[in-house]
Fold:
Amino acid sequence: MSLKMVIKLSTYGQFGKPFMNYLESISLNDKTKEYIEILKLYWDNKYDEVLEAIERNISKLRKGSLYYENNPVNKGFILMANARRKKNEGNYIEAAKLNIQAFKTLKDVPHPSGMVGALNNISWWLKDVDKNISLNFTLP
Structure:
């Protein structure tokens, strides 16, 4: 919660600084405190110190988080989430394409429940667009 609040307050520039000080005092998360400190340094025009703080924090990143989307299982479910977003926007064809891509990715792993989920999404979402295409994606 406090990180979202910090990001929202950062849009006000230095006028949000008193609130940032308060959030920094009550924040339990060290990462949020570091972010607030970097913002304060930036507002004080201490750009070299800002770069040093950013470099220091980047070196603390876990390498696993950098490769998260390259994991085939994660990639498949990320594609399915993107497809759900497209479906909610009303773009059913694009959603079906993303689900097909997710199915192909999860087929290589293999991840049976993910594959069935992708096919099920396609068939349910396309039933109103074209029933024949929808029936092609159902399991026999």
About this structure: The chain has a mean pLDDT of 83. Residues 68-136 form one domain. The CA atoms of residues 2 and 26 lie 9 Å apart.
